[in-house]
Specification:
- This protein is an alpha/beta fold and 442 residues long.
- The chain has three domains: 2-44 and 200-276 and 372-423, FAD/NAD(P)-binding domain (3-Layer(bba) Sandwich), CATH 3.50.50.60; 47-84 and 193-197 and 278-369, Guanine Nucleotide Dissociation Inhibitor, domain 2; 115-190, Guanine Nucleotide Dissociation Inhibitor, domain 1.
- 32% of the residues lie in helices and 23% in strands.
- It has helices at 2-5, 16-27, 67-75, 105-110, 116-128, 142-149, 153-167, 177-189, 200-212, 255-261, 266-274, 335-349, 407-423, and strands spanning 8-12, 31-36, 47-50, 53-56, 62-63, 81-82, 91-94, 97-100, 192-195, 216-219, 223-229, 232-238, 243-245, 248-251, 278-287, 297-300, 305-309, 322-329, 357-369, 394-396.
- The strands form five sheets. It has a seven-stranded mixed β-sheet with strand order 8-7-16-17-18-15-19, sandwiched between helices. It has a five-stranded parallel β-sheet with strand order 10-2-1-14-20.
- Strand 1, helix 2 (16-27) and strand 2 (31-36) form a beta-alpha-beta unit.
- Helix 2 packs parallel to helix 9 and helix 3 (67-75) crosses helix 13 (407-423).
- The longest helix is centred in the C-terminal third of the chain and has 17 residues, at 407-423.
- The structure holds flavin-adenine dinucleotide (FAD).
- The site of flavin-adenine dinucleotide has 36 residues, from helix 2, strand 2, strand 15, strand 19 and helix 13.
Length: 442
């Protein structure tokens, strides 16, 4: 009865990180239970179906060639999508006016956003990125890097906008230059995809793989504590008092949740205190038709704004309809003012849109990632996990964990890393190396 003696891995969180971890752990022969507090799986990668429109939670683009694609490929999860609709050209939103966004050599020459000297500086900076020793920039903030290399204020603004759209981060004083530039290069080398039918397709694909490998997935199951005995993981307690036996636990949620589940573990408290969330305000709008089909993409240059018609390339709306995401990088306290600002951007790009709204959702402050690679902590390599010092058998995963990737890429990569650490043959899920092997097939 090999299955009965396999170690029990409980995964807390049914988002991309938790489901990736569950799929790998189940494939490694462990008895896996996923606990998701919401009634549906997906977390921030969920897609809501409304009147034939697929609403991701804010604008979501999958980085090609990144950790997400690697994990999905290994697990055999198919994703289908299309690049953003920038072939008509992209706009820069500057001083309330739309101009050409300098994204390539031609638009750089023709755009009126930049004076000539600024054009030369942007071109020189972009052309020189490949030659940089990125590792040496891990502890330098992107802002410090930029200020040193680019003098023209308008050129700095354009570069900041390109980094914001690549990383989602607007705190460039803290963001590691290494991580920022790597992420920008990932986006420009292979590009990104808007997924047909939304990001839920990845969630469902991962859940299918995990289930097929034997994992049990419980929705509506909120974890409230990790029960340990003599320093060993014993169970996960649910809000209704039930206990799910566990030999190892993967916490695939926020650092503050990890710390609250194990309040006696100082490392988790320290990680939670050090994390700086990346936030955004999002206006997700479904329209019955698109008033200006050519106006599909814009980036704010003097303000941290984003506009894109995701349905212009991906299948996210019924025939003739349009699925639009408008966003502001970094949430502000005055959410009504932000909502008005996003509505104005929508009207500027798509005049009359307000009369064509079929579905609308405003998210004043959503956490995009629980942390970002901070220069002060040595960039991506300064991120914690997946193992938790002082808590054998406990692992973490999510977009704030591990040394690989940003955004969802970090969730996928750390989900895999956490599962590998929790199922390693000699791993001591009980905190006592070599005493007992928990590989069911040993
Ligand atoms: C507006 C927005 C835009 C984004 N755009 C992009 C993008 O373009 N590209 C990109 O790569 N990434 C993007 N991201 C980031 C990406 O969505 C996230 O990094 C990723 O979905 C996080 O997955 P996760 O599994 O780590 O966390 P989550 O999705 O947060 O999953 C954690 C899960 O844990 C559950 N949970 C919490 N507490 C408990 C508990 N006590 N018990 C049981 N379950 C619990 C939650 O309900 C949730 O389902 C964006 C995010 C947002 C919000």
């Amino acid at each position: 009865m090999t299955t009965n003696t396999a170690a029990r891995v409980v995964v807390i969180g049914g988002g991309l990180a938790g489901l990736s971890a569950a799929a790998y752990a189940a494939r490694a022969g462990r008895r896996v239970t996923v606990l998701e507090k919401a009634s549906e799986l997906g977390g921030r990668a969920a897609t809501h179906e409304k009147k034939g429109f697929s609403l991701n939670i804010g604008p979501h683009a999958l980085y090609r060639g990144g950790e997400a694609e690697r994990v999905l490929g290994e697990l055999g999860v198919q994703t289908k999508g299309a690049p953003p609709p920038t072939s008509n050209g992209a706009y820069a939103l500057h001083g309330g006016i739309l101009r050409a966004l300098p994204t390539g050599p031609v638009s750089l020459l023709t755009s009126s956003v930049l004076p000539l000297v600024g054009k030369i500086e942007v071109a020189r900076l972009l052309a020189g990125l490949d030659a940089l020793d990125l590792a040496s920039l891990a502890e330098t903030s992107f802002e410090a890097f930029l200020t040193k290399r680019v003098r023209t204020p308008e050129a700095r603004d354009v570069i900041r906008a390109l980094i914001r759209v690549s990383t989602y981060c607007s705190d460039l004083e803290r963001l590691s230059a290494e991580a920022a530039i790597s992420q920008f290069q990932l986006g420009t080398t292979r590009g990104v995809l808007y997924l047909h039918d939304g990001w839920q397709t990845m969630v469902n694909g991962l859940a299918d793989v995990a289930r097929a490998a034997g994992a049990e997935i419980l929705a509506g199951a909120k974890a409230v504590s990790v029960v340990r005995e003599d320093g060993r993981v014993k169970a996960v307690r649910l809000a209704d008092g039930a206990e799910i036996p566990a030999d190892a636990v993967i916490i695939a949620a926020s650092p503050s949740l990890a710390s609250s589940l194990l309040p006696d573990v100082p490392a988790l408290a320290a990680w939670s205190a050090a994390a700086i969330p990346v936030t955004a305000a999002c206006l997700d709008v479904a329209l019955s038709r698109l008033p200006q089909p050519r106006n599909t993409f814009a980036l704010g240059i003097d303000r941290p704004l984003y506009f894109s018609v995701h349905s212009a390339s991906a299948r996210l709306a019924p025939e003739g309809g349009a699925m639009i995401h408008v966003a502001r990088y970094g949430a502000l306290e005055d959410s009504r003012a932000v909502e008005r600002e996003l509505e104005e951007v929508l009207e500027l790009l798509q005049p009359g849109a307000k009369h064509l709204v079929v579905e609308r959702r405003f998210l004043p402050s959503i956490t995009v990632t629980h942390d970002f690679p901070q220069a002060a902590r040595g960039g991506t390599r300064g991120r914690p996990g997946p193992a938790v010092p002082g808590a054998p058998g406990v692992f973490v995963a999510g977009d704030w964990v591990g040394h690989a990737g940003m955004l969802a890429d970090a969730s996928f990569a750390s989900g895999r890393a956490a599962a590998q650490a929790a199922t390693r043959r000699e791993v001591n899920v009980l905190g006592d190396v070599g005493r007992k092997s928990f590989d069911a097939r040993a």
